[in-house]
Design a protein that fits this description.
The chain is of the alpha+beta class. It contains 5 helices and 5 strands. It has a 3-stranded antiparallel sheet with strand order 3-5-4. The protein has a two-stranded antiparallel sheet with strand order 1-2.
Length: 124
């Protein structure tokens, strides 16, 4: 629990753990992709492109564990599996999209600051 601006160590660890999941680049890409609706594993992998099979599986497993994604298995031959956002996952999209929009709006400023910093560091 918080007391004013002081955060208990246990809460800090829990928040850090949750933010690590939400801020992971693969999490962001998977959640944004699932915003279009439920998708099968292979659809997600094709849409995201650079993600490996192992990383996508681990990301989906983490998202399911944290309550952002549901996994539905259909009794077909072979079985098909579909992933979809939960209400919590859809709620997460609001700040994720807002932050992504902010980054895009300020990308030139960020890159300029990096350039200036690097130039000063290298004495140029």
């Amino acid at each position: 629990m918080t007391q004013g601006y002081l955060i208990e160590t246990e809460d800090c660890h829990r928040v850090t753990d949750a933010l690590a999941r939400v801020g992971d680049k693969w999490t962001v890409l998977v959640v944004i992709q699932l915003d279009t609706g439920p998708q099968r594993f292979s659809e997600l992998r094709r849409a995201i492109g650079a993600i490996s099979h192992k990383m996508l599986a681990a990301t989906l497993r983490g998202l399911e564990r944290d309550g952002f994604v549901t996994r539905t298995v259909y009794p077909t031959k072979p079985p098909s599996v579909e992933y979809a956002l939960t209400g919590l996952g859809r709620d997460m999209l609001v700040p994720v999209k807002a932050l992504g929009t902010w980054v895009l709006d300020n990308l030139q400023r960020i890159e300029s600051a990096r350039h200036d910093f690097d130039a000063a560091l290298n004495g140029k």
